Amino acid sequence: MPSDQPLHRALGLTDEELEAIRTTLGREPNPNELAMYGVMWSEHCSYKSSKIYLRTLPTEGRHVLVGPGQDAGAIDIGDGLAVVFKMESHSHPSAIEPYQGAATGVGGIVRDIVAMGARPIALLDPLMFGPLTEERNRWLFEGVVAGIGGYGNCIGVPTVGGEVHFAEPHSTNPVINVMCVGVASADDLVTAAREVHEGSLMVLIGAATGRDGIGGVSVLASRTIEEDAAETRPSVQIGDPFAEKLLIEACLELVRRDLLEGLQDLGGAGLTCAASESTARSRMGSEIDLDVVPLRAPDLEIWEILTSESQERMLAIVSPDRLADVREVCTKWGLASSVIGKLVAGGGLAVRKGGEVVAQVPARSLADEGPIYERPARQPRGLDELEQDDPTFSTVKASPLDSFLTVLASPNVASKRWVWEQYDFLVQGGTVAGPGADAAIVRIEGALKALALSTDGKGRFGHLNPYLGAAHAVAEAARNVAVMGATPLAITNCMNFGNPERPEVMWQFAESVRGMADACSALETPVTGGNVSFYNESGDSSIWPTPVIGMLGLIEDHRLLVRPGFTGPGLVVYLLGETFPELGGSEFAEVVLGKVAGRAPALDFDSERALHRVLIEGSRKDLLASAHDCSEGGLAVALAESAITGNVGFAVALPGDVPWYVTLFAESASRAVVSTTLEAAAALEALAEEHHVPVFPLGETGGPRMVFDSLFEVTVEEARAVYEGTIPKLLAGEGRSAPGS
Amino acid sequence: MSRRPRIGVVTFPGSLDDRDARRAVAAMGGEGVPLWHSHSDLQGVDAVILPGGFSYGDYLRTGAIARFAPIMEEVRTFADAGGPVVGICNGFQILCEAQLLPGALIRNRQLRFVCRFVDVRVETSLSPLTEGLVPGEVLTVPVKHGEGQFVAGAEELDRIEGEGLVVFRYCAPDGSFDDEHNVNGSLDSIAGVRNEVGNVVGLMPHPEHAVDPDVGPTGGQPMLASLLSYALARV
Amino acid sequence: MRFRCRVEVELKPGLLDPQGKAVEGSLPAMGWTNVSNVRIGKAIWMDVEASDEQTAIARVQEIAERLLSNPVIERFVVRSVEEIPRLTFEDHA
After folding, report:
1. What is the pTM of this model?
2. Taking CB atoms and an 8 Å cutoff, what residues of chain C touch A210?
3. Quick one: pLDDT at residue A515?
4. Site from B113, B114, B140, B209 to mutate, A interface, most A CB atoms within 10 angstroms
5. Mean pLDDT over all residues of chain A?
């Protein structure tokens, strides 16, 4: 950091923000206080640029127990159970040190779930990288996947899903999101509504505090990555999953024994964030003593202790008469516990060291009263031209077979087995459907009920039209859940964007929020929380606006779930939903025509909902042998995946009145490929008609080949080799550039 | 009707599949008894399972620290007296470290963690997990480990093979062996071994994750059924 | 007195070392040829309070035998022992 700039600016605070701090305190802040405001008022912690937009999202619904603003949202799934879920980003740390960045991202989101009193039962990882033909992207990709596995596998939480996308803008800015889902007895939830008392103790549990991630929040997350990124390496946090596992078990035992008034994770902004939020939430003040905080190095500065992001720590609020019990539980799990402070009357947060007060600020001014900006927003130049450059009626020179194989071999479409086989997706024994399905299905222990979980981001569509990109992400996430027979209930999200100080990015953000709000309202899936990750850009390269949606669905009886693979020969194959001539933003347009341009597909919420009803009712009435969402790669890929997964071929006839590439590769929304027995076919058709969902019989399953009308045919084995071989080959350095690029 | 066998499942710090093992034992008709690493008490169980996980983070070597836990003295005594002991995944690694089983487990050949359903062939019926099973039988069970490559010195391996201590091998669905199906590069495709007496067995695959047909393949059912009857027969 | 000790643990010769093999395999592509027998082990540091250096070494030998190495696959050597004047912390690079 240049030494000639004023301290507040070095800490990421503007002159106006410094003035606001002076007004709040009625005096000049000292350096410790400035550091605390610096981390808490950073974009990452304060949501200062996004707050005015996030307020417009629909957050209420009959299932919502806890909405946005706490560690994680919570949904009532009946029988006295609550599902707690949240998504976060760890993109910036992962761009610098992929293994530890991704690993500590997992650790952080898991603690958010534990802080609500819930046992984490599933993890999902939406990831975006630059093309694997670049060595550095392979290094990032391999490191991130190893880090997710290294941490997640070691804490006993199954990684059951997620997605991986590849696009050039992620070469400099990989996007690493992670979602965690937990289950708690609704009575055990540790929410802000819990009663806390004056004199209650603040107990720091877990790891000692070291120099990890000092300034991580403001330096790593709130400033755009520059060329000398390696210089910031020392501030990367190192994860200790073994300590996390002990922390999870200890915290859940504390919750089960009802020993806590409050519980909070130490994540971004470390102790400052946990202490100020706990204090502000209690509507009291607090006094904390840094001399009691266990340190890993003796010479930590005050501001380092206050902002360190050392991992695997939690802050519990404990009534003095429960302290002995709390300590006993911590000792049982081999964890340190230190009483670092207590709640007092008033609203101040007083920090002592060596007997002296080293910082004293109103807790709410840190936690709740950060700056709020309405930044200028403006549509990017050239967007209209980009939309007009629509590929739908381009001349296509490639043959149908070559096009099909090229799309199937695209890393966005190809199997991600190489990734998910490195994740333990079985531990805890509840994974009914794991990675590779449209949604993961995780059974609730001892019940027939199961959760359906999906994450979806639509970067290409968002690039062309951020409103539609966000709306499609919600629709696709809901469809992925519905296609397996589950009812979509609610979402969390992670909003991945460039620099909000640029009006074009702010416009993309505003449009995305509008799209998400409309889709969530229409599909009745309220937003229970989420995360905003800005500054995903470096130099003149910014990522596409990519809100990632984490969908929670519920299936009442997991034995009724419908899987994507064809279950055998002799089934009737249908396309549900209508295909339109819209190739804008499609996989086909990118990898065959070499174009990311045009109009993103339209989205009609009524059609989408109608499709969900047919899928869910079809599952309940046992009319569906298989069902698979039609998305990237269109109908051709949906059919191929159903055949490869089920290991059985098919023969289909295609409608002749539109060009073959539209029929095969358009990514029109609100569609699914389903199969059914001859006996159930009439009932399925009737069900679709009842809900006004177009239903097209395509053909039937059977044989070793996939026969696409008279256009081409290919064996399932050959298609599988392409589908499964792409990513391993790219990682072995056998990269080839896509046609047209 | 005989009583339900009581199967102790040890929880070490960092054990992960302990609850799953107890659940699987219960699903097969036994009683899963939780045992705590720092207690020197097996609570009179009929058999002991050392479950999967990352005991003590597996930071030094897999299983290296857990073998010194107080309960391991009891497990050793129990095993010496002929009591059935099963080590699954990390439990297998612990038993090798404790030298209750021959060989050692090192990083997978591909240097990556692998979670996958695999086929294993039963090689002997002389173990608590295979009593009543026929050698040659193929069972589908999952593996999930980063350090499951079975190794031993040349002499040791000769002894293991010569004395018929191999209990399971990774195989193709038809029971044949080849490199492709050797999921982690283990010597001789070894997935599980027993001790000389035949009462201690360790394996990398997870039978406890293959008992429930709603969740996946059920190759773990015959293994755990064998354990339950073996445990009762001893009483 | 306090001694800073270092133990090196490595796989026994002849045992396959997949990590070492992977590193060795990557070298030619990066331009380094004529390099062979790459083996990966680990080094473990510890501070030992003892009356003299010999006692410190004996203690470390015992720890290495019992815990730090697995005699089935590994061998070890206590590589260096030096007296240190003051407490060190893990953050000390």
Report:
1. 0.94
2. 91
3. 98
4. B113
5. 93
| Structure confidence by residue, pLDDT tens digits, B170-204 | 999 999 999 999 999 999 999 999 999 999 999 99
User: Do A551 and A478 contact (CB within 8 A), yes or no?
Assistant: yes
- Chain centroid to CA A456: 8
Give the pLDDT confidence of A602-627 residue by residue, as tens digits: 999 999 999 999 999 999 999 999 99
Beta carbons of A544 and A459 less than 8 angstroms apart: yes
Q: What is d(CA A307, CA A40) in angstroms, rounded to the nearest whole number?
A: 9
pLDDT digits (tens, 9 = 90+) for C39-75: 989 999 999 999 999 999 999 999 999 999 988 888 9
Q: What is the ipTM of this complex?
A: 0.97
Report chain A residues whose CB lies below 8 A from the CB of B107. none
Q: Which of C12, C68, C70 sits opposite B97 (nearest CB)?
A: C70
B206 is catalytic: yes
Q: Which chains touch A (3 or more CB pairs under 8 A)?
A: B, C
Contact B125/B131 with Cβ under 8 angstroms?
A: yes
By the CB < 8 Å criterion, does A212 face chain B?
no
Q: What is the DSSP secondary-structure string of A93-140?
A: HHHHSHHHHHHHHHHHHHHHHHHTT-EEEEEEEEEEES-TTSHHHHHH
CB pairs under 8 A between B and C: 40
Query: Chain B residue closest to C20 (CA)?
Result: B111
> Which residue out of B89, B123, B131, B171 is catalytically annotated?
B89
**Neighbour subunits, B (≥3 Cβ pairs < 8 A):** A, C
DSSP secondary structure of B61-119 = STTTTGGGSHHHHHHHHHHHTT--EEEETHHHHHHHHTTSSSSEEE--TTSS-EEEEEE
Q: A179: which 2 tokens?
A: 């979602």
Residue B40 phi, psi (nearest 5): -100, 60
pLDDT value at residue C13: 81
